[in-house]
Amino acid sequence: MWPIIRNRLIMLVFVVFGVSFITFLMSNVIPGDPARMIVGPRGDQATYQRIREQLGLNDPLYVQYVDYMKGIFTGDLGTSIRTQQPVLDDLITYFPATLELVIYAFLFAIFFGVMIGVITAVKNNTKWDYIGRFFSITGVSLPVFLSGLIFIIIFYGKLGWFPGSGRIDLFMELPPRITGLYTVDSLLVGNFEAFKNSLWHLIMPSIILGYVQLSTIVRQVRSSMLDVLNQEYIRTAKANGLSEWFLIIRYALRNALIPVITVVGVSFGMLLGGAVVTEMIFNWPGMGKYVVESIGFLDFPAIMGFTLLISVGYVIINLIVDLLYIVLDPRVRE
Amino acid sequence: MLLEIKELSVSFESIYGKSHVLDHVSINIKKGEIIGVVGESGSGKSVTALAIIRLLHKNASIDSGEILYENENLLTKDEKEIQAIRGKKIGMVFQEPMTALNPTMKIGKQLANVIRKHREVSKKEAHELAIETLKDVKIKDAEKVSEKYPFQLSGGMRQRVVIALAMAAPPDLLIADEPTTALDVTVQNEILKLMKSLSEKKGTSILFITHDLAVVGNFCDRVYVMYQGKIVESGKTADVLHKPEHPYTRALIESLPEGKNPDEPLKVIDGEPFVLNSRPTGCVFIARCPLKTEQCSNVPPVRWRGTDHWAACWEVEENAGNPLARKEI
Amino acid sequence: MNTQTETQPQTLTTTQTLSKQKILWYRFKQNPLTLVGTGILLMFIVLAIFAPLLTPYDPEMVNMSERFEPPSSAHWFGTDEVGRDILTRILYGARLSLGIGITVVVIAGLIGSVIGAIAGYLGKAFGQFIMRMMDIMLAFPPLVLAMALTAALGPSLINAMLAIVIVKIPVYVRLARSEALVVREQLFVKAAETFGLSKVWIIARHIVPNVISPIIVQVTIDLGEAILLIATLGFLGLGAQPPMPEWGAMISTGWEFFLDQWWYPTFPGIAIFLATLSFNLLGDGLRDLLDPKSTR
Amino acid sequence: MLEIHSLVKRFDDIEAVKNVSFQVKKGETYGLVGESGSGKSTIGNMIIGLLQPTSGDILMEGKHLWDKSSYKRMKNGEIQIVFQDPQSSLDPRMTIRSILLEPLRALPLKERREKGKKSNLGKLLRTVGMNESHLDRHPHEFSGGQRQRIAIARAIITDPVFIILDEPTSALDVSVQAQILNLLKKLQKERGLTYLFISHDMSVIQYMCDRVGVLYHGELVEENKTSKLFSSPQKDYTKKLLSSLPTLFEKEDQYA
Asked: Is C193 close to D88, i.e. CB distance below 8 A?
C-alpha cells in the first residue's frame, strides 16, 4: 500500500506548485499592471516607478516567481490594499468563522444526502424516487442568494425564528478564542448560553450552503447504490437466503459508500467556495466576506491569497479522501 | 416427488411489448435425482430456475402454472416464507464466479453470514462451520482461504466457494445455472465431480441448467430439452442423446462438431433462435423445422417412446418399434 | 427491489426492431421530471426570442417617476430604483443568460472532449501530461477560480465567460479521456488498427463518435451550472456591469433593497432558478436515457 | 506460409509467451488450443500487429513482420483477424456498409473503388449468407450469428491470404456455431485461405484443424496432426485436457 501513498504525496507537491504558479500568473502577470492599480490613474510617474521597483515588477518573470514562492513559504502573502494588514493575518482571523459554517453545512449535506440517496435507490422508479430526485435537483439549481433571500424574508423577517445575520448576538459575551469556532470554544468553556446562541445563528446559513452539496451527494449515492444493487453478488446472497434489508445495509451500503467518498471530498471543497456568497448574504464575518469586499477594491494580494489558501486546503482534503479510499477498499489495499 | 413445476408460463413486459418467455413448462425432480435442462440462449432455461426461487426481474409476470415444493405452491408464498426457503431448502449457483461474491468482504465472513441465517449458532461457531464447509468443497488450507478476499482466488476456487455458500444449509435441492460455462475444461471437470459427490453424500438433488449437451451426457440422470420457452423432449439422458426423437434435438446433436467427419459440412438448422413477441399457435420450431407439415401449425401432442421418454412433435409415432421409422432430417 | 438477471429482455432480430429513436422517445416520456424540464426550457426560449413583442418598456430607459413601484398590472414584477420595468429586464436578461450559458458550455465541451479523446487514445506519456495539467486546474473550487480569473482579467461579462470556459474545460477533458479509455479497448477499434488505418482516422471515426453521448449529458447539466456561475459572478460584481440587464447584476444592485422592496431581487432570482432547474432536469433525464443501468 | 521462431512476450514480470515456435503451411488450418491464460490470444495479437513481441520473430512468406519496434505490413489487407465477441467487434454507430468499406481505406485507390462498388458488397454479403438489404442497418439490429457473418465479410473484403480466427464461435449458440464453422470451411476451399484457429473448445478444434499446437502457460507443450494428437496424446497435460473433455458418448468414470 505504501507505494500508492508515496506517489500520491509526490502528486500533491506537484499540484500545489502548479496551483501556486497559476495564482502567481493571475496576480502578477494577467492583470497587466498592479502598480498602476495602487497608484491610480492620476499618480505621478516617480511614485509609479518606485512602486514598480518595490514590487519587483521590472525583474524577469522567473525571478518574480521565485520571490513569490519565497513569500508563500515565509507566510508573506503580500499586504492587503484595503486593510493594509498582511493578507495572511487577515485570513487567519477570519478563517475559523468560515470553517465552522462549512463544517455544519457539510454535516447537514452528508447526513441527508446519504439518507435520501439510499431511499431513492432502494425505491427506484417509485414516487419516492422522483420526489427525492426533484428535491436534490432543486438543490443544484437554487442560487444561494435566492434561497438565502427567501429564508431571511420568511424566517427572519416575518416569523423571526432565526437571526438574520452575524455569528452571535451582539449583547452575548464572546467565548475565549481557543479554536476560533464559537460552538466548540463555548462548549470547552462550558458557556451553554453562547453555545446555544451561536448554534442558533449557524442553522440557517449552514442549511442554505449545505443544500447545494446535498443534491450532488444524493445523485452520487443513488447511482452508486443502483450499481451495487444490480451486482451479481447481491442476487447470489439473496438466493442463499439473506434478507433484503440485511443485504441493503451490510452488503450494498458498505460497497456503495466507498466510491462516494471521493464526491464527499469534492463537495467539501465546493462548500469552501460556496461560503463566499453565503457569508455575504448572512453578513457572516468569514474569509468569504473578506474576499468579496476586497473584490470591490480589486485587492489582488487578498484575492489571490484567499484563492491559494482555499485551493491548497482543497487539495489536502482530496488527498485525505484518496487515502481513506485506499484504506477502505481491500482490492486496492491488498 | 421433491419439486414439481406444472404448466408454468412467464412473460415479460418491456418496451417492445409483452414477450412470452415460458409457455406451459412442466418439470419434476425426485429426491437425490440429477436433472438436466438443456437449451440454447432464449430458450428460457434460466427463467425457469429464477421462477422457482422467485428472483425473477420485477417486470416479469407469472401468467399460469404452479411450482410445488414438497406439495406446497411456492408461487403463493409471501416474501418472508420464500426467504426462509432460499438457501435452506433450495440453494442456487450462478454462472459467473468472478461476480458472484462480495468483493470487499472476506470469504469466511460471507459464509458465516449465510450459515447464521439458517442455523442458530454463535458468530464463533459459524466461523468454524464456515471452514468446515470450505473443506467439504475440497478447498486446501481452508483456514487461510477464509481470511482471503474473492479477488485473491482463481475462477475455479471462487466457484467452489459459491457452491459452499449454496450448500451451507445443506439444501434438499441445488439449482445450478450453467455453473461451469465460464470455467476451463479441466476446472469444469473438477467442479462437476465435486457436485456429483456432494449430491450423493448429502442426498441433494440437482437441477442442472446448461447449453452444453456433452456435459449433460455423463452427469445427469434425466434431461429436458427446451426451445423457445417450451419443453420439446424429455427422458433418460442416454435415450435423449443417443436416440433423439424431436427434430430439434436431433438437429442439435447433428450440429455438434464432436466426432464428426472434418471433410463433410455439419448438418445445420437454418435461421437462429429468437424471441417471438406473438407466440406461434402451433409448434415453436415450425419456422426452422426440416420435417414440418401443415398439421404442425396446431399444438403438437406429447408422443411417448417408452416409459419416460417423450417428444412433442407430430412426426413422432407413438411407441413405434424401431427408431428407423423416423424420416431422415 | 430490482435485481437484474442477464437474460431479460431477450435479444432482438431484424424482424421486430423498433427504431432507436422510438425507444428513446418512449423512455424520455416515462420520466416526468424531464418533461417538466423541457417545458420550462421551451418557455424561456420563447420568452427570450419574443421579448420585444411581449413588453412595451425599454430595458434601459430610466423613468424616475415610477421608482420602486410594487408589482402591479402596469409592471407585473414592479420597477427598480431608477424606474425600469423588472419584467422587461428579465426577458432581455434571458437572452444574455441562455446565450452565454450555451456558448460557454459548448466551447468548453468541444475543446475539452477533443483533448480528452486524444489524451485517452494516444495513451501513456501524452495522456499523463494532460491529466496532470487538468489535476492542477481541478485543484481550484470552480467558483473560486472563476472569481480570481475574472478579477485578474478585469470584471466584465466577456472575462466572466472566458473564466468559466477555462474552469469548465478540465471537467470535459477528464470525462472524455475516461470514456476514450473504454472505447479504445473495444474490438472494433483493435480491428481498425489491424487494417493499418491512421490514428487520426481511428480517433475521428471511432473514438469521438462513441464518446459523444456521455458528453452531451454533461453539457446539458453544465448548462444549468454555467447560468448559475455567471449569475453568481454578476452578483459578486465581477460579471456583467450595470446597466446591462444580466440577472446576477440585477440582484447584486437590488440586494440592499430586499427588506422593503422584496420584489426587486426576488424575481430575477426566481428566473435564474427556473432556467438552471430546466437544464438540470433535462440533463438528469438524458443521463437516465443514455445510461441503461438506471432504467432497467 | 507463416513461421514463428522462439517468440517471447513478457508483461512487466509475467512471461505470457515462452519461446513458442511453429509453422503454418499454405491452405492449412493450424489450431492453437489452450485454457485461459495460456497465451494463445497474445500470440494472435502479435502476428496481426496489435502487440509487439519481446523477442523472437514472425515471418510471413519469408519476410519479417516485426523489425525492431515497427510492424511492417507486407501489403495492407493481406492478414486479417476475426474476434470472438460479435458484440464489440462492430462499431455501433456505423452502418454495415461503412463497416465493410473501412478495411478498404488502407488499399490503393484503384483497388478500393473497384472493391467498394455496391454490387461487390452485395456479392460479398451473399457469400456469407446475408443480403444487400442489410447494408444500411446498424449492428444492434442483428443477432450474434449475423454479426459474426458481417465480421467475416469485413475480413475477406481485402482478399487476404491468411486469417487469424480468435475463438470465432465461442460466444455463439451451438446451432449458430455450426453455420459459422461451415461458412469458414467453404471460404477456405473457395479462396485457398490459410487459417490460424485459436480456441479452448477441443471438439471444434478436432473438426476444423489439420494440425494442432497445445499451449500451457505460454509454452507449446505438444504439436501434432489432429487425428494423431486426439488418438495418442504424448504429454500429460494434453492427456488431462482430453480426459476432462465432456463427451456425448458413454464414459463411466467421467464424474465418478
From this structure: no
For chain A, helix, strand, coil in percent to 5 are 80, 0, 20
Hunting for cell 494516444 — which residue is that?
A: C122
The whole-angstrom distance between C179's CA and the closest CA on chain B is: 23
Could you report how far apart the first and last alpha carbons of chain B are, in Å? 37
Q: What is the CATH number of the domain that holds D28?
A: 3.40.50.300
| CA pair distance A94, A102, nearest whole angstrom | 13
Strands D162-166 and D79-82: parallel
The three cell numbers of residue B85 are 426457503
User: Is residue D21 assigned to a domain?
Assistant: yes
Q: How many CB atoms lie within 10 A of CB B34?
A: 24
In angstroms, how far is CA A132 from the centroid of its own chain? 24
Domains: count for chain D = 1
Closest CA to C161 of C238, C275, C263: C238
Tell me which residue of C130, C165, C132 sits closest to C149, measured CA to CA: C165
**D48/C17 touch (CB, cutoff 8 Å), yes or no:** no
Structure confidence at residue C294 (pLDDT)? 38
DSSP of A268-295, one letter per residue?
Answer: HHHHHHHHHHHHHHTT--SHHHHHHHHH
Q: Label residue A34 by pLDDT band (50, 70, 90).
A: low
Determine, yes or no, domain membership for D143: no
Is the Cβ–Cβ distance between A286 and A205 less than 8 Å? no
Q: Please list the pLDDT of chain B residue by residue as tens digits (329 residues).
A: 889 999 999 988 876 677 888 888 999 999 989 999 999 888 889 999 999 988 888 888 888 899 999 888 888 888 888 888 888 899 999 988 888 899 989 999 999 999 988 888 888 999 999 998 899 888 888 899 999 999 999 888 999 999 999 988 889 999 999 998 888 888 898 899 999 999 999 899 999 999 988 888 888 999 999 988 889 999 999 888 888 888 888 888 888 888 788 888 888 877 776 655 556 677 888 778 877 788 888 888 888 887 788 888 887 777 655 444 455 65
Domains of chain A are: 87-333 (1.10.3720.10)
Residue A283 contacts C, CB cutoff 8 Å: no
User: What is the phi/psi pair of residue A303, to 5°?
Assistant: -60, -45
CB B274 to CB D143 under 8 A? yes
The answer, for B193 touching chain D at a CB cutoff of 8 Å, is yes
Report if residue D129 sits inside a domain: no
ipTM, 2 decimals? Answer: 0.81
CB A206 within 8 A of CB B52: no
Q: A325, A323, A330: which is closest to A2 by C-alpha?
A: A323
* CA D223/CA D240 separation, integer angstroms: 15
How many CB pairs below 8 Å do chains B and C form together? Answer: 56
Torsions phi, psi of A47, nearest 5? -60, -35
Mutate which: C140, C256, C276, vs A, most A CBs within 10 A: C140
Cross-chain Cβ contact D254/B251 below 8 Å: no
**Four-point Cα dihedral B151, B154, B159, B160, nearest 10:** -110
Q: What global pTM score does this model have? A: 0.82
Of how many residues is chain C composed? 296
At C5-46, the pLDDT tens digits run 333 333 333 334 455 667 667 767 777 778 888 888 888 888
Instruction: Render pLDDT for A269-299 as a digit per residue (tens, 0 to 9).
Output: 888 888 888 888 888 888 888 888 887 777 7
Residue of C nearest to A269 (CA): C141
Asked if B79 and A242 touch (Cβ cutoff 8 Å), the reply is no
B279 neighbourhood in chain C, CB within 8 Å: none
> CB–CB of A307 and C148 under 8 A?
yes
Query: Considering only CB atoms, which chain C residues are within 8 Å of B40?
Result: none
D241 assigned to some structural domain? yes
